[in-house]
Amino acid sequence: MGEPNWVFIIPVLNESSIIGRSLHILDSAIRQGKSKFGECTIVVADNGSSDDTGARVTAVMAELQTPVVYQHIPDRGRGIAIRLVLERVRARNYCYLDADLPLELTALPGLLEPIQEGRADITVLSRRGQRPFFRRILTGLMKKINSTLLHLDFDDCQSGVKAFSSRAAELMKQCREPGYFLDTEFLSLAQSQNLRIHQEPTPWIERRYPERQSKVRPVKDSLQALSAQKRIFCRQYPQAVGAIKHLFGLVALLAVSYTVFTLFWLTFPAPVHRLETISILFCVFHWLAYLVLVHGLIRSTAIPARLLTTIIMLLAAAVYLVLALQPPSLSQDLYWNLLLGKGSAIYHLSPYVTTPNDLTFDSWSANVTTWRDLSMTHGPLWAAFLHLVVSLVPTSQIQAIILVKLLFGGLLLFCLHLWRSLMKNHLSEKALPLLLGLLAFNPLVLQHIPVDGHNDILVMLGILISYYFLQQKKYALCLISLILAGGVKYAPWLLLPIPIVELWRSPGTWKAKSRTLFLTVLGSVLLLAAMYWPYGISALQPPGLVEELTKRLDLLATLPGALILLALFRLTVAQLHLVGLLLFTGALGYFIYRRKTILAYTVPFLVLFFWGTSWFMPWYILWVYLFLPFLVSLPGFLVLTLLIYFSSVGFHGLFLLTLLLFLSTVWVLLSTAWGKKKSICCAPDG
Fold first, then answer.
1. According to the 3-state scheme, what is the secondary structure of 395-446?
2. What is the pLDDT of residues 433-488, one digit of tens each?
3. How far apart, in whole angstroms, are the C-alpha atoms of residue 334 and residue 389?
4. Which residue in 111, 160, 315, 369 has a CA-CA distance of 20 to 30 Å to 680?
5. CATH number of the domain to which 67 belongs
């Protein structure tokens, strides 16, 4: 007798109560499909049973039409049993099933046909049907871990039913997992060898035999699964394991070094340019470390891009946590904001009419060294956020600062995750982790969010969400996102024409679009009124915006473009602002007209801050960094970061460097605009 077309393997362990019935059911299904399946054999792999499973199998053999082979395997382990059967029994194709046959047998042809017809080397199941809630959660968690660690995107790697060819069987013999996690190792190896894997949606039977006790132990099995996934990863990516250890160690050293360095400098009695020096060294240290570690060490190994992305996010979370415990170093705005928030939450004073000078009796006032005569300049959502934070920790300023910065670190991670989702279709799999790291460990981002605690992370989040909705053509939600982001800082309101124009351009009747636009605008007005209502003020005259424009109008902190305009044309500060407004409006209108939404989101602000404002702080455009890959090449991205970062240092020794960086930036932008340099990725709007 020649080798069978199919061998059905049933690994069993103490299954005497059900194995007879399962063999009858499987035999019936094989007989019904014999014209399709050809010659078949059933192999029962008794994996060290201590009951009478073997006797029960022997007793039913004569009752079945399909040949049955019983094999006793003394060493326990489902993986061991299946591999030994593959070595002992030759066949063209194989299929293994759990002893309780957890699938509808009418679905068996859909499982076997892709293998038999040569369309696939392996067929895995995607379970369909009712399953306990906890098991669905457990399966989803395992899927996420398998996807991240091993790049396996199948719904259920661990389902106890799989079909595969003799070619795939040779690969399974190389697996080393002894137990239930043979499936995961098998699929991981098969994918690495470019075998064809087909996923078949299949009706699932959770409990064919109600009297049979499930052998699933959720907590213990989950821990064993994590251990097995780690073993499989270490065997498949041995070089990556060492690289990951070095990466974690060196990034930990980076965070600890910054902590020690900061504390060392803060022991001196206000040395000259103390904060600026910390900032510069912080910038250089972080980027050198990142570029050496990630670009050099990690990219030279075989770490899957998805795993590298996860590692970067975990490392970023660790660094953000350490930096959140540091006192603000380059900016003292958080002290000022929290003091006004305490005035609102504890003393019931409106932050829009109260200044730190009105709160000198409070101990939190001692750390506010700037803006003592300035009331709140930000939007009502930010004022409400501060009110909530101080209500939670009303007695400790340190705890309030840490709480704010921890929350901001979490929001920054969410922004990076959302950015990755938006970018994955526009970047190569290898480029995505590198660029994600350049954003996550960007010195500008690290300094101004987890260290200094600027609220621009909320603006970044709102603008990123608005762009997401814009890409989904949900223009009303895009507009509302910008309204809410402007409730923190007012700049996002300048982008409101984008969703309004796109809504008007969208398909539909004039009447329907007019109604949608009217309801959206009405809802936005009501939303603004609701935001300002607790402070007893009108949304038509935002007091924070008025304070921003009047109190800081004559202050001068500019980028070189504005300095050049002021010097060459003898402009007043008011005239400079008018020039900036005209440049912004012209750029915004042009890109909206050309339907270049990604450029409309970014270039007008870059033009405004480079050429048209007398008061620029680098954290004002943190959100622009998320869109820069659509605009400039990688060198341009680095140059822009350094230019904006060093612009905040503020002492004259760096003027030549700043000017050089500025001219380099202009060259990069012009080269990109004229097509001589490619941007890092393609904009979704072309």
1. CCHHHHHHHHHHHHHHHHHHHHHHHHHHHCCCCCCCHHHHHHHHHHCCHHHH
2. 778 877 887 777 888 898 889 999 999 999 999 999 998 999 989 999 999 999 89
3. 12
4. 315
5. 3.90.550.10
DSSP 103: B
Alpha helix stretches (DSSP H) within 533-572: 543-551, 560-569
Residues in the chain: 686
Q: For residues 178 and 325, state if they share a domain.
A: no
3-state secondary structure of 77: coil
Distance of CA 173 to the CA centre of its chain: 37
What span, in angstroms and rounded, lies between the C-alpha atoms of 479 and 99?
57
- Asked whether residue 288 falls in the same domain as residue 329, the answer is yes
Residue 670 lies inside a defined structural domain of this protein: no
Tell me which residue has tokens 């959302």. 418
Q: What is the model's pTM? A: 0.73
- What is the C-alpha to C-alpha distance for residues 387 and 344, in angstroms, rounded to an integer? 6
Distance from C-alpha of 232 to C-alpha of 238, rounded to nearest angstrom: 10
Provide CB contacts within 8 A for 561, sequence distance 6+.
Answer: 610, 611, 662
In the block, residue with structure tokens 């506010």 = 368
Do 344 and 406 fall into the same domain? yes
Reduced to 3 states (helix: H, G, I; strand: E, B; else coil), residue 178 is: coil
pLDDT in tens, 275-314: 444 554 555 555 555 555 555 555 555 667 777 788 788 8
β-strand pairing of 122-128 with 40-46: unpaired
Residue 72 CB neighbour total at 10 angstroms: 13
Question: How many CB atoms neighbour CB 455 within 10 A?
Answer: 22
